[in-house]
Amino acid sequence: MSPTLILIALTGGMCTGVLVLLTVESLLSIISALHGALMTRWKKLTNAASPGQIKTGILVRLLLNKTVLFIIAITVSDGAHGYFQPLLRAEHTSTPDLIYKITALFTAVLCGRIAIQRLRLSWMLSHQVGYAEKRQRTFLLR
């Protein structure tokens, strides 16, 4: 096993780990945004003047952003997998594949905390009334 093959396995594993985590995180954010949209729509159907409704524009924007991110992550991860796997199978040994998989898992675990924070933010944007507006005002004041 050459050092070049080890470097390819480590690089490919890191890329794959981040892309898989990003794919799962964006899919969960899409589900969260859809849940918020359905809750808001249900409140509007029952009582159009009821307080505690999240603006539909915020939910649509969040849903669109996460959907585009999901599509990009799926496309890039498929391309990365198609690029790295033939390089790792060149020697017909399982060691580079094992290094690749362990590195992908380790990278996903290391970046998991950031993904959980982004999921929490997505949940708050789609379910907490006024949170998105307050966050936007704070951002504009900086």
What does this structure look like?
The protein is an all-alpha fold. The protein has helices at 3-46, 56-88, 95-110, 112-127, 131-141. Helix 1 crosses helix 3 and helix 1 (3-46) runs parallel beside helix 4 (112-127). The mean pLDDT is 83.
Summarize the structure.
By secondary structure, the chain is mostly helical. The protein is built from 5 helices and no strands.
Fraction of residues in helix: over 70%
Distance between the termini: 52 Å
β content, as a range? under 5%
Rounded to an integer, what's the Rg over CA atoms? 20 Å
Mean pLDDT: 83
Please write the string of helix (H) and strand (E) elements.
Answer: HHHHH
Counting helices, strands and paired strands, the structural category is mainly alpha
* Form type: elongated
> Which regions contain 5 or more consecutive residues with pLDDT less than 50?
none
Please describe the biggest sheet, giving its number of strands, its sense, and whether it closes into a barrel: none
Separate helix tally: 5
Task: Report the strand count.
Answer: 0
Question: How would you summarize the topology of this molecule?
Answer:
Elements: H1 3-46, H2 56-88, H3 95-110, H4 112-127, H5 131-141
Helix pairs in contact: 1-2, 1-3, 1-4
